[in-house]
Prior knowledge:
mainly beta, 0% helix
Amino acid sequence: YLHLDQNQLTFLPEIFGNLVQLQYLHLTQNKLTFLPESFVNLAKLEYLHLDLNQLTSLPESFGNLAQLQYLDLGQNQLTSVPESIGNLSQLEYLDLDQNQLTFLPTSVGNLLQLQVLKLSQNKLTSLPAIFENLTRLQELNLAQNKLTSLSERFGNLVQLKELKLSQNQLTSVP
Length: 174
C-alpha cells in the first residue's frame, strides 16, 4: 500500500516504476500532469486512485497494468484514453467522470468484467458500438455529456441497476 493523497506532487520520478510489488496506490488530489513511462511496470497494481489531478494523457502502454480491478481517473483533464485500456481485463470499476473526453476507444468493449463505469461531465457525443458487450455493467453514469442517441443494442446491458443519462442532447431512447 502506498498513500500519497493530498500532496503537491507535480510528477513522479522514473524510479517510481521500480515498486513492482505494489498493489494499492493512492495519488488522489495532487497536481500530476503526466505519468512516467515506467509507471506501467507496476504490473501487480490492483487499485489505482489518480482522481483530482491534472492529467492530460496516459501512457500508451497503460493497458500493461493487467491486474487492475479499480481505476479512478475522475476529475482530471484527459482528452482521450489509450486504446490499450481494453487490455485491463480484470477491471471492475472505472471512473472517468469530469474529464474532457470526446470519444472512447472501441477497446472499452473488451472490459468484460466492468461493473461500474462513470463517464459524467465529459464531452462524449456517441458511444462505441461495441459498448453493448459490457453485459456485467450494473452502474453506468453518462450524465452531462453531449449524447444525441443510444444504440438499439443498449438493451443488452441487462445487469444495469443504475443508468444516468440526464443533461445530454437525447431526442429519443431505444
